[in-house]
């Protein structure tokens, strides 16, 4: 591998797309990730080690969906991410080790790695990531790329306005010729977690029991809106963070199956005229949900009616127009002509239609508006990963890899080559 240039299709690059909710990972050139691993880990301290060493307790980790769902007495659920960036490096190292060994069955030394990052990632965290992958995992080469750029590539664009609505925030990121225009990034703290919180508030106000499935041993079939009849599964009392995590999973399932975004600003009469959707909770309680299905996610587009949300927080439509307005006049037409929608929340029914309607009224008449939204929900969720998969398998990209040899010669300075 002279000079870190790799030979076309034989590269076998691994793509790591890390988000607040999960890590998407798989091989470059494939259509979808091989695995999706939660970035929240179960953490507990092992007292048995303490007796042997007479020292501090040793931290143990439960990784991946099934292991997290095991109820342990002192296990806390901790996220390794904060504001879209890696916060806990020990946990990230454990997660990467697990992913290589148990999900990819791959040896890190044999595959170059393409990592995604949020557009506001700090230089320090990028350097730390570079150091970890080269020093600890001995990868032969790596590259770090902004997830907004990759989402644009996944939709066949090198210039685009990328609207990414994920777990912790919604952002509008302008991309021009494969580079993020940093001064044009606009963020809102309203994302999937905020919608989950709104769902929880609504269901608690209706006195609906949100016991997760893992605590239900058995349940009886009951009529609509009748009190549930169920028995609790015996076992150790879980920690508050574990219980909150499981309730959040239940609420996310409720979101996916029932919520819908209205075509225009929320109107109760129109919402009541739409079909209702039935949802059954793990305890057996079931009900039909009507206008609330549209009222809850409305906050993403019009936060002004939500209690506790400041007037300064923008909805998705104003995020885009504000971001475009902060960019150079010359590229505004091409940004409006390629508004790429990606992220988990974009899978909500009606998301792109509502964004289109909100933007049509705000777009200058001289500019053509085009919303680009992948048909399948998995393509929207995995937009950045798919872009990374395409990029890593291009012959013209192979000279871009930062090789181990270059890292050993120049150290962290080679990061300047990553856009």
UniProtKB/TrEMBL annotation:
Xref: SUPFAM superfamilies: Actin-like ATPase domain
From which domain of life does this come? Eukaryota
CDD domains on file: ASKHA_NBD_Arp4_ACTL6-like (cd13395)
InterPro entries xref list = Actin, ATPase_NBD
Checking SMART domains in the record gives:
ACTIN
Q: Which family does it belong to?
A: Belongs to the actin family.
- Can you say what this protein is called? Actin-like protein 6B
According to its UniProt entry, this protein's organism is: Neodiprion lecontei (Redheaded pine sawfly)
């Amino acid at each position: 591998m002279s000079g870190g240039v790799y030979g076309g299709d034989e590269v076998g690059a691994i793509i790591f797309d890390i988000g607040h909710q999960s890590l998407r990972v798989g091989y470059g050139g494939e259509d979808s990730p091989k695995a999706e691993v939660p970035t929240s880990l179960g953490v507990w301290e092992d007292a048995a080690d303490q007796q042997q060493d007479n020292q501090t307790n040793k931290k143990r980790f439960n990784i991946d969906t099934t292991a997290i769902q095991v109820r342990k007495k002192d296990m806390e659920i901790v996220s390794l991410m904060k504001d879209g960036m890696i916060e806990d490096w020990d946990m990230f190292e454990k997660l990467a080790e697990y992913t290589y060994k148990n999900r990819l069955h791959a040896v890190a030394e044999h595959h170059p790695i393409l990592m995604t990052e949020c557009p506001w990632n700090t230089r320090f965290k990028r350097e730390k990531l570079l150091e970890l992958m080269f020093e600890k995992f001995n990868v032969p080469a790596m590259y770090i790329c902004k997830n907004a750029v990759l989402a644009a590539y996944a939709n066949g664009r090198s210039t685009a306005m990328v609207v990414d609505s994920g777990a912790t925030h919604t952002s509008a990121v302008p991309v021009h010729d494969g580079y993020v225009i940093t001064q044009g990034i606009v963020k809102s703290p309203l994302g999937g977690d905020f919608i989950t919180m709104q769902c929880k508030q609504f269901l608690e106000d209706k006195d609906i029991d949100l016991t997760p499935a893992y605590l239900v041993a058995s349940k009886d079939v009951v009529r609509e809106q009748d009190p549930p009849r169920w028995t609790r599964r015996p076992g150790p009392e879980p920690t508050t963070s574990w219980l909150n995590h499981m309730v959040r999973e239940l609420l996310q399932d409720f979101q996916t199956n029932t919520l819908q975004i209205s075509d225009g600003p929320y109107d109760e009469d129109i919402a009541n005229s739409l079909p209702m959707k039935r949802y059954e909770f793990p305890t057996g309680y079931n009900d039909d949900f009507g206008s609330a299905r549209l009222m809850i996610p409305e906050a993403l587009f019009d936060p002004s009616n939500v209690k506790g949300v400041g007037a300064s927080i923008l909805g998705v439509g104003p995020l885009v127009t504000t971001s475009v307005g902060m960019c150079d006049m010359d590229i505004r037409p091409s940004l409006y002509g390629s508004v790429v929608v990606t992220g988990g929340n974009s899978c909500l029914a009606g998301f792109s239609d509502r964004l289109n309607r909100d933007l049509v009224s705000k777009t200058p008449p001289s500019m053509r508006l085009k919303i680009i939204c992948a048909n399948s929900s998995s393509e929207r969720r995995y937009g950045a990963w798919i872009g990374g998969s395409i990029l890593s398998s291009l012959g013209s990209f192979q000279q871009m890899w930062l090789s181990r040899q270059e890292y050993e010669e120049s150290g962290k300075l080679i990061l300047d080559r990553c856009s």
